Each structure stands twice: as C-alpha cells, then as structure tokens.
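Following up on my earlier thread - several people asked me to post the actual chain instead of describing it. Fair enough. Here it is, all 290 residues.
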Amino acid sequence: MNAGTFTIGADLQVNRLGFGAMRITGPGIWGPPAEHANALAVLRRSVALDVNLIDTADSYGPDVSEELIAEALHPYPGGVVIATKGGHTRSGPDRWTPNGQPEHLRAALDGSLRRLKLERIDVYQLHRPDPKVPFEESVGVLAELQRAGKIRHVGLSSVSVAQIESARKLVPIVSVQNRFNNATRGGAVFNGVSDDETLAVVDYCTRENIAFFPWGPLAAGKLSSDRISALALRRNVAPHQIALAWLLRRSPVIIPIPGTASIAHLEQNVASAAIELSDDEFASLDVANG
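Reply from S.P.:
Thanks for posting it. Predicted structure:
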C-alpha cells in the first residue's frame, strides 16, 4: 500500500507492487515446487501483506502455478486481481515455444479458468506474439473471448509500440508486460523486443495510462551496479529493494511483479514500497543517464 495504487482498465484498483507467480514452480519453471507447503505459504503471505495483484501464466509449470494459486487463495479475497497469460507451449525445463493459434488460445483460456476456479479472468494477456501467426489473429481471438464474457480485460506481453497500437484497434488494452529493469538500455533483445523499444513502450504506456508490468524487474537476482549497491549501503537496505524503488518512481503506471519462493525475500520486496528515492538518488540511477 505504501507504493500507492493504480486502476487497471478503469475498474480494477491494485496496489502498485504485485507478485509474479513464476518462481513458485520447479526448476526451469517446470513441474511442481520442491516444497509444496512453502509455495502455498508464500502466496498466502503475499495477500496478507496487501499484495492484491497476482500475475501468472498457464505455461508456468505448465499449469502448476495456476493450480497453486487456486489451492492457496480460492475463494479469492475481495479486491484480489488474478492476471494470467496464454500463448506459450512447453516441452521441458526452460523451453518456451510461442503458440498464438486461435484454437490454442481458446483452449489455454478455458484451462486457466478451470485451474484458477474462475468464471472470468480479470486480466488475460497474450504471452508473446507468435511469428508464425498474424498478430491480429491472436489478438482478435482474445477480443472474441472478451465479448463472450470469459475475459474482463485484455493485456499484452513482449510487444512493441506498433503492436500495442495495432491491438488497440481490435480491443482495449489495459496492460503491457515487457522485460524491464534498471539495467534496461542499449540494443539487447528479449523475446523479439529490444531494450530501446521497451523504453519507448514504457513512455507510451505512461502517456496512455496503460498499466506496465515489468517482468524480470530484478533480472533474476543478477541486477547490480555500483550505483545501486552504493545507494543500498547508504540506505541500509538490500540492492534489489533499491531496484524496485527505482521502478516505482520511474513511472506511475509501473506495477512491479517480483517473484520469489521465499517468504523472507517476499517481505523484503514488499518493504521496498516504503523506500522513497530523492530526486538526486533517482537521477543517479535513471537509465536515461546511461
């Protein structure tokens, strides 16, 4: 709650620090977690800490993350928003294959509804454009499923500004999820989107008041720099807490969704919402400064 709130799609108010439910699965985001009870405890603790946006996907496990969320939290407390994604298939640990075929997306959505024990998904996101399928076909089927009452709001992931604008001609887009953290700069490409394009996407979402969920907000624990470390030392907090505080300050539409399988780490993440960076501190970390 210290991070403030954002209203997704004009009717879903969430606190601006969510929980990414990818890492509660097994190694390589494959299979069940080593400690089932711990995964349930992490999910329950997140809600107890006023995290009311849970982000997941049918491909996490696959299926495992969604099943754990329902087991831990259903019936869902009032105000809890579940965002999930479809558009990937899995063949093994750390293996991801885009599948934006309309028939796959229809089946994926029905599977998510069943596992999450929902009649409608609050925010359903296309996990990634499939280069083998026209983008408009994939988005079009989500628009169709929204009209059918199975989706409340539609979101996108791993997209460019041009793709967002193309999608918005077919259906309102309430959220975008690209890889983004304090190290995002230059020409690196992730899931077909360059860092430079993602920076443009963040600015676009800010102008258009579209929620932006940065995936990889901590670069899987590898995010570090002399500036972050030095500031963390002065503030007597962990470097990843500074990285999350920077994201919260970077734009009012950004809703970080850090994931973890540790309650202690979860509590540190949530505590980041109370860290207010000064103008000088923010400027020293801002990617715009290189």
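Residues 5-289 form a domain with the TIM Barrel fold (CATH 3.20.20.100). That should answer part of your original question.
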